[in-house]
Amino acid sequence: MAKSKYEYVKEFETDDRMLRNVYVLVRIDGKGFHKFSQTHDFAKPNDVRGINLMNHAARCVMHELDDILLAFGESDEYSFLFRKSTDLYQRREAKIVSTVVSLFTSAYVYYWNDYFTDLKRPLYPPVFDGRAVLYPSEVEVKDYFAWRQADTHINNLFNTSFWALVEEGGLTPKAAEARLCGTDSKDKNEMLFTEFSTNYSKLPAMYRKGSVLLREQIPKDADKDAIIPTLPETLPGSKSAKVIPAPGLQSGPDPISEPASEAPSGQSTPISLDSPIVVQETVMQENSSNSSSEGKKRSIDANEAEQQDVEEGPAAKKEAPAFKRMKKGVVIDHIDIIGEKFWTGRGAYILAPEKKKKLRS
Ligand SMILES: Nc1nc2c(ncn2[C@@H]2O[C@H](COP(=O)(O)OP(=O)(O)OP(=O)(O)O)[C@@H](O)[C@H]2O)c(=O)[nH]1
Ligand SMILES: [Mg+2]
């Protein structure tokens, strides 16, 4: 076909294909969410409706883009890690970033009323920006997520202390800030406990640790939304996310070891691991009469499970609950991703070596 005389303008486009064989990390962040949260009367310091809506929007992104292995969200931001060998849009940066941002933002607005049930739609359109960062090795990927989760911890402890002083203690914001100036984590924990009877480590893990989206095995017949558990105290009354208030999801005693002194934002802080909430096992327990043994079957692969159903026959099938038939799904949890325990455990699949794929020439 003959080219039009105007077609030469295409030559002005820049080639923004990102380097191959490195991890692609896309982070989105709400623009002016300080004002947005005030305008929409978000609870301070954490609005459970807002957090669950962010989580829902992030899930939509993961459902759409299979190459995302892991996502982490806190406050008004979400990070998405793509597998090293992703060939999505031939790794063109603008296409990838704009797709993530656009899908996230439209889902945020689309599902708004499921969470903010008394307001049909946001009072003005929320805006998110996005960027892509390339990480050459597993070391930087782990440190990246440690950085974001340490940030969650530091900000949340500060905000919890700040709003306790203002809302319960009657201090002005300025006085509260002055009171917290120079304090470390231990001081804040102590203040919350002695002055406001708040045991910080017992606050919902979703506030303290952020939200982690993983790809794991889920029951084959599970509705992709139904598998998303939420802390009982965070039930948003969502219509689209059928929340399972699983018994194992209460925020129990949580021996998080606080950093000795406040690290500046951006510096990894040694936070110890507590017992993670194992979502899959919780779901299984709900369906199972023998929870402890059934819980161990969480790693059964979909084909393997179907095969077992066939081999074991109808008698075995009667005893075996339906969830033996598994598929990969997106699950949400609020666990420590700082430290090796996560990366060698539930997160092991994320950094596992990929099968060699022929690269496009
Ligand atoms: N009250 C309340 N505020 C929240 C919540 N989540 C996020 N925010 C607000 O969103 C802000 C997010 O921080 P930033 O991204 O640094 O602030 P921003 O106003 O979005 O600024 P830019 O990202 O630079 O545009 C927080 O400082 C809070 O003011 C929430 O659950 N409750
Ligand atoms: Mg922001």
Automatic annotation (TrEMBL):
One of its GO terms (molecular function) is GTP binding. GO terms for biological process: tRNA modification. Mg(2+) 1 binds at D29, G30, D76. GTP binds at D29, G30, K31, G32, F33, H34, S75, D76. Residues 140-338 form the Thg1 C-terminal domain. InterPro entries: Thg1_C_dom, tRNAHis_GuaTrfase_cat, tRNAHis_GuaTrfase_Thg1, tRNAHis_GuaTrfase_Thg1_sf. It holds the Pfam family Thg1. Mg(2+) 2 binds at D29, D76. Keywords: GTP-binding, Magnesium, Metal-binding, Nucleotide-binding, Nucleotidyltransferase, Transferase, tRNA processing. This is tRNA(His) guanylyltransferase. It comes from Linnemannia schmuckeri.
